[in-house]
Amino acid sequence: MADHAKTRAVVLISGSGSNLQAFIDQVESGELDLELALVISNKAEAYGLQRAAKAGIATKAIDHKRFESRQEFDQALMAQIDTAKPDIVILAGFMRILTAEFVNHYTSRLINIHPSLLPKYPGTNTHQRALDAGDEWHGASIHYVVPEVDAGPIILQGRLRIKSDDTENSLQQRIHGIEHQLYPLAVKWITENRLTVSKNRVLLDGETSAQQLQTFDL
């Protein structure tokens, strides 16, 4: 029997690439049947590029500051991504707001992880906002990307209880623990063709699943 074609992914990063490392580790362990075809950063000094190179993954840096407009940068980014012919594009700490043209070019192939329990706290400073609001729970959401920021259909969420002594930094570190477990799981479901989107809801094996909100003790 012929081997099935692996799902090809391009990963976009801006920083240390800790979520990228979670993907690399699961691919190398055989847990995730994914081909990491290319890692692109808008910052040449991003440590995640070193992680990718160490794992034998092709890398590319495209400095957004070299472009006069967001549209021009996104055009260059799309051209580079498309050379890899990806099945999915994974945003893993890519700190750029993408144009609608870019998002629509990758409709239903573009996924992101956001450090809050969406629809709560779209945008930035999510950990401090959760603390300031006195929330009981905080977490992370993996979602398909649509032109509206942090508003796409949610694939998977993980949450943990906020501790009385949590700071913005401690909460961020604990949420990373959720991200590194759940982001590869969400991508695994994609590689296994288990997800469909109906009426802006993501279905796992054709139904809404309790697995799509997981509680952690980290």
Explained architecture:
By secondary structure, this protein is an alpha/beta fold. It has two domains: 1-106, Formyl transferase, N-terminal domain (Rossmann fold, 3-Layer(aba) Sandwich), CATH 3.40.50.170; 115-145 and 156-218, Formyl transferase, N-terminal domain (Rossmann fold), CATH 3.40.50.170. Helices cover 33% and strands 25% of the residues. The chain has helices spanning 18-29, 47-54, 70-83, 100-105, 126-132, 168-191, and strands at residues 7-13, 34-41, 58-61, 88-91, 110-114, 137-144, 154-161, 195-198, 201-204, 213-215. The protein is globular, with a radius of gyration of 17 Å.
Q: What features would you highlight for this structure?
A:
two-stranded antiparallel sheet; 8-stranded mixed beta sheet; 218 residues; Rossmann fold; alpha/beta
Short overview:
With 218 residues, this protein is an alpha/beta fold. The protein contains six helices and ten strands.
Q: How are the SSEs ordered, and which strands pair?
A:
Blueprint: E1 7-13, H1 18-29, E2 34-41, H2 47-54, E3 58-61, H3 70-83, E4 88-91, H4 100-105, E5 110-114, H5 126-132, E6 137-144, E7 154-161, H6 168-191, E8 195-198, E9 201-204, E10 213-215
Parallel strand pairs: 1-2, 1-4, 2-3, 4-5, 7-10
Antiparallel strand pairs: 5-6, 6-7, 8-9
For this structure, what is the CATH class of the largest domain? Alpha Beta
Number of helices: 6
> N-to-C SSE series?
EHEHEHEHEHEEHEEE
Helix share, percent: 25-40%
How much strand? 25-35%
Q: Which fold name is given in CATH as the topology of the largest domain? A: Rossmann fold
For CATH, the homologous superfamily of the largest domain is named as: Formyl transferase, N-terminal domain
Q: The biggest beta sheet, please?
A: 8 strands, mixed
Q: Tell me, briefly, the overall form.
A: globular
The N- and C-terminal alpha carbons lie at a distance of 43 Å
Kindly name the structural category: alpha/beta
| Poorly predicted spans | none
Estimate nothing, just give the exact number of structural domains. Answer: 2
Mean pLDDT: 94
Number of extended strands: 10
Radius of gyration, CA atoms, in whole angstroms: 17 Å
Give the CATH architecture of the largest domain: 3-Layer(aba) Sandwich
User: Widest sheet: strand order?
Assistant: 3-2-1-4-5-6-7-10
